[in-house]
Amino acid sequence: MLQSLSQNEDTIVALATPNGVGAISVIRVSGPNSISSVDKVFLGKKKLADCTSHTIHYGKIIDAYGETIDDVLVSIFLNGQSFTGEDSIEISTHGSPFVAQKVISILLNEDVRLAEPGEFTKRAFLNGKIDLAQAEAVADVINSRTEVSLRGARNQLDGILSSKIDYLREKLIQTSSLIELELDFAEEDIQFMSMPEIVKNLEEISDELDQLLSTFSFGKVIRDGVNVALVGPPNAGKSSLLNYFLKEARAIVSEVPGTTRDIIREDLFIDGILFRLSDTAGIRATDDHIEKEGVFRSRNALKEADIVLFLNDTTIEFSENLYQEILELNHKERVVSVGNKVDLEKPHNENYDVLISAKTGEGIEKLFAKLKEVALGSSSYTEKTAIVTNIRHFEALKKANESIESAMNSIKEGLTGEFISVDLRNAVSSLGEIIGIITADDILNNIFSKFCIGK
Ligand SMILES: Nc1nc2c(ncn2[C@@H]2O[C@H](COP(=O)(O)OP(=O)(O)OP(=O)(O)O)[C@@H](O)[C@H]2O)c(=O)[nH]1
Ligand SMILES: [Mg+2]
Q1: Closest by alpha carbon to 235, among 263, 262, 261, 254?
Q2: Ion ligand 2: residue ranges with CB closer than 5 A
Q3: Per-residue pLDDT tens over the stretch 45-62
Q4: C-alpha angle 103/105/107, rounded to 5°?
């Protein structure tokens, strides 16, 4: 099933723990010569070649002159029962980067080479231990910074997305093979499955793909967080709100309109979701060329934001023109209109989704709830729901769905089976790309080069 089973002649080594001082450092070795190479530098009670899999051995690592480098513990993984699917060894040394580097350099003399970034995970994939979507989830688990993003990555590593893709791909292959059968027997005028039935199958698959695609906005939120731009006229209290969120005087606040010029970015976690805040310059026409640049940057930030917090001072008139401009630069459902300074006087509230005071904190809980609501949408996903968090998967799903739609159009137009088959084959291969059934080398390299060395 896999494109190429890993026939790695090379045995690789890398530091698996961070390169710094700690209690222990772990060095990972994987490949056909793992045992023999380590045996040459390891002095224990018995040879590692005589030990069984999944056992741990105390001993010393010695250099070419017989000098002891360190006392170590060596764990052995044999017979494909390792992360990579190859014979592997993990050496735990004392946690000094110098000791770890020394052990690695000794091994480099014993027919072992340094691993490339992500090479252990790449081997796990090539040896069929995990599929490509799961390999990518390994990186997401490592990079996850919040409870929510970790759960999303775990979901993918557990294969929930993969098995959904697998199921849809199989269903598509079945449908498409029926059409191909028909092609083969076209002369004999035999029908294996009626066209309406085929169309019904394709529609079902397409619906499920649509459903998966629709999880991406949520998936992106849980994996990468949400960009929130604090935008509004000068003096609305944007910087005050940023400071209130962060519980520190991060941005300069003053009664002078046009205080903020540069964009100030900070992260805020609300219930495990990462909100990346940008405090921006108040938007107004100005002759000051520095402020002008600030306003230019504000407009860019608001264009790119996943959520725009449009802040206004409730004690003065609502900036209707600016509001209309924001709606043009972004999407209405992503703009939250916030009325600030409610501590000063009772406001006209018809323009606002939420009323707050960045000074007293009034209404901030409601604002948090609103931010979460806009970020997550009406999604109600359980831990068993397949969620698309990765743009590569999203693009492949989109391509698959387009191919299926094109096939259905061909059917409607009464085109011959060949047209339909080509599209369906494309759809099958797009789905296969997600789990790595057939994936071009450059795509694989691109994916694994983003890993750290030792993973
Ligand atoms: N009473 C009251 N004053 C506030 C509130 N929020 C902000 N202010 C005051 O409003 C003024 C402007 O606040 P900033 O936070 O600097 O406003 P800004 O929107 O960042 O302004 P620019 O950076 O100039 O665009 C300051 O004097 C703040 O103390 C509030 O909720 N209540
Ligand atoms: Mg400001």
Answers
A1: 254
A2: 238-239, 259-260
A3: 999 999 999 999 999 999
A4: 70
> According to the model, what pLDDT value does residue 4 have?
40
Q: Is 242 in the pocket of ligand 1 (CB under 6 A)?
A: no
* pTM, full prediction: 0.79
Least distant ligand from the CA of 241? 1
Please check whether residue 51 is in contact with residue 42, taking contact to mean a CB–CB distance below 8 angstroms.
no
| Ligand 1 pocket check for 258: Cβ under 6 Å | yes
Choose which residue among 235, 297, 354, 362 to substitute to test ligand 1 binding: the one with the highest number of ligand atoms within 8 A of its C-beta: 235
Domain ranges of the chain: 12-128, 142-215+385-435, 225-376
Ligand 1, atom 2, lies closest to the CA of 341
Q: Is 340 in the pocket of ligand 1 (CB under 6 A)?
A: yes
Ligand 1 pocket: which of 253, 261, 279, 355 to mutate (most atoms within 8 A of CB): 253
Tell me the DSSP string of 313-336: ETTS---HHHHHHHHHHS-GGGEE
Say which CATH architecture domain 225-376 belongs to. 3-Layer(aba) Sandwich (3.40)
pLDDT tier, 392 (very low <50, low <70, confident <90, very high otherwise): very high
| 3-state SS assignment for residue 380 | coil
Tokens of 327: 């709606």
Contact 3, 439 (CB under 8 A): yes
Q: Tell me, using a 6 A CB cutoff, whether residue 261 lines ligand 1.
A: no
Local structure of residue 398 (DSSP, 8 states): H
Q: Poorest-confidence range of 78-82, 261-265, 412-416?
A: 412-416
- Asked if the 12-128 domain carries CATH number 3.30.1360.120, the reply is yes
Compute, in angstroms, the gap from residue 348 CA to the centroid of ligand 2. 23
Residue 312 CA to ligand 1 centre (angstroms) = 10
Distance CA 14, CA 100 (A): 9
The ligand 1 atom at the shortest distance from the C-alpha of residue 232 is: 19
How far apart are alpha carbons 6 and 19 in whole angstroms?
29
Q: Tell me which CATH code domain 142-215+385-435 carries.
A: 1.20.120.430
Any ligand 1 atom below 6 A from CB of 343:
yes
Rounded to the nearest 5°, which phi and psi values hold at 76?
-115, 135
* Amino acid at residue number 31: G
Single-letter residue type at 191? Q
Q: Give the Å distance between the CA of 356 and the centre of ligand 1.
A: 12
- Please, what's the b/e burial string for 112-142 (b: 16 or more CB within 10 A of its CB; e: otherwise)? beebebbbbbbbbbbbebbbbbbbbbbbbee
Chain segment 101-151, per-residue pLDDT in tens: 999 999 999 999 999 999 999 999 999 999 999 999 999 999 888 888 898
- Cβ–Cβ < 8 Å for 413, 101: no
Please, which residues bridge with residue 25 across strands?
93
